[in-house]
Amino acid sequence: MEAQVFINEKSLELKKHVGLIHSTNELTLLERKIANALLYNAFAQLRTHNEHQIHIPYLCKLIGYNSNDFKTIKKSLMSLISTVLEWNLLGEQDTAGSWNASSIIADAKIEGSICVYSYSNRMRELCCYPEFYGKLNMAVLARFKSTYGIALYENCARYQNINKTPWFTLQIYRKLMGVVSGKYELFRDLNKRVIKPSVAEVNNQTDIHVMPEFKKHGRGVVAIRFLINRKEKSLEVSAEKGCDSEQTALYRLIGNYGCSKKQANELIESYGLQYLQEKMSLIESSLSFKNGKIKHLSKYLQKALSDDFQAPKSSKEHLDALRLEEEKKDLLRKTNEKNQQKFRDYQNRELVKMLRDLPLKERRTIERKFDEYIKDTLYYSVYLKEGLDNPLVRDRFGTFIRNNYPNLAATLGTIDQFISTAV
Fold this sequence. Notes:
57% of the residues lie in helices and 14% in strands. By secondary structure, it is α+β, with helices and mostly antiparallel strands. The chain folds into four domains: 1-142, Arc Repressor Mutant, subunit A (Orthogonal Bundle), CATH 1.10.10; 145-232, Winged helix-like DNA-binding domain superfamily/Winged helix DNA-binding domain (Arc Repressor Mutant, subunit A); 235-306, no CATH class; 338-421, no CATH class. A three-stranded antiparallel beta sheet has the order 2-4-5. A three-stranded antiparallel beta sheet has the order 3-7-6. Strand 10 (208-217) and strand 11 form a beta hairpin. Helix 2 crosses helix 3, helix 2 (29-42) crosses helix 4 (70-82) and helix 7 (147-157) packs across helix 9 (187-205).
């Protein structure tokens, strides 16, 4: 007998206690999404049930995980059991000196496609009575592609009514974002790898716009806060409508195409919502459909799906498509060349800085070898006059380091990492 699954379909709103939002952990993006989805699923029964159940396919839909790789889900559940969550870092609505910690979930098991899980008493006590909570939308959370982005959104969303977060010391901010201890210790690295990418993702994916503000002591940044503005057009509303689109597709399949509810659900599950809607729109815009010449719509739709029907094209459209493709390739080539040059210039500048920070003995060894390397070239006279401050000489130095000290150059990351964090 299949176990009953408790699923609240009425709302995608998750009420998450601020203590859990202002918490420290080093979860991956998938683990953080699953933790939120499990809490959303269990919320209504937290006071009355010791155990909770959820269908894994539904869990995957909640978090935007388009895969049947249940092994990854199992690994994430194991991580949630073993990860200790320390919460209320900001001390809000809590007594001075109070400290709380718990595993995120106490245990879990999977039977077929059903996951059964429970929370510790400490977690249940906190989650059952969220007098102070942040409202988070599960559809919005599912859009995030980085753990820093989703962490920033959670920590900013609850402050949107007062338009700014409190000041976070950099130590607290690192914990809130889940930055691994010892990583990005220099502020410039933290800003480049964590702050800027997460701000960009929140601004692109949600209904709020955030802007960082820094507090300095002398020349160094010691604290950060975020100014928050709600966008005029709420993405949260459109996200909820997006979730209704599956229901709309279901109605179209049953009402317009004569499918049974079982057939409609199987088509959505097999082909995915976007692909299915694309083929329905293609059929419904055709002359055959408009003139009522398609006798068996459900069979015709299945044929369109399996054979990947495409809209008819004229020779002009074909030539235009080829020209557009060539233009895209040319633009991509130019962009790649430009990015490669930017990355090379960045490496050259950083390698010179690294040289100057090396111990004296090691620095002099490299300088002596570079002197021998450049001595018989046209750049040597320029090197003697201007040293490594000259861009041409600096480029030669970068080539020398990449060829002779590849491990030193590798510490600056890859070109993909440079492009993904470049502003």
